[in-house]
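User: For my dataset I need records formatted as: sequence, then structure tokens, nothing else. Please produce one.
Assistant:
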Amino acid sequence: MTPQSGEEWGTALSHLVLGVVSLHAAVCTAQASRGAAAGFLLQALAAATMLAPGLGTDEDCLAGAWVATVISLPLLAFDFHWVNGDRSSANLLLGGGMVLALAGDHLGTEGRSVAGQAVVLVVSVTILIVAVFTANTYGMWGGAMLGVAGLLSRLEEDRLLLLPKEDVCRWALAAGSWAYRQALQTQHLQWE
């Protein structure tokens, strides 16, 4: 076993935190929203594949993480829209994510990057809009954190706050996932 550098430990920690937060959110939301729970579970599995050595090549892990992004985030947004009666937006977001997941092999690296970032920004904005109109504070924070993760991923800098950019994005995504779990709980309590 070779010793790892501090940066490798930081990357592993960001994957681990995202996986644990997402798995906890999946368990907590499973009764109230199976779609959101599936989205959180996909995020947790994508983080786990990046941590586990020998599950495939780096390209396989990155492709899995991309598919998890374009499917799991629309699943989260689906529940926000569906519970508030906006079924057409819910179906459009989820259908768009499924089409992108299927078309991923035909997009190329740059196309996947742009499509993934577009999904992150569209989902964060739509959840933020629903959260503002329903006065769901956790939803607003979750939308903001996911938007921050999407915007930071577009920066050309390799390091942010002395950390690799990808790690900062995962930390923001983990914070957003925690806030979304809280927002879903708040939203379902309001409708009961």
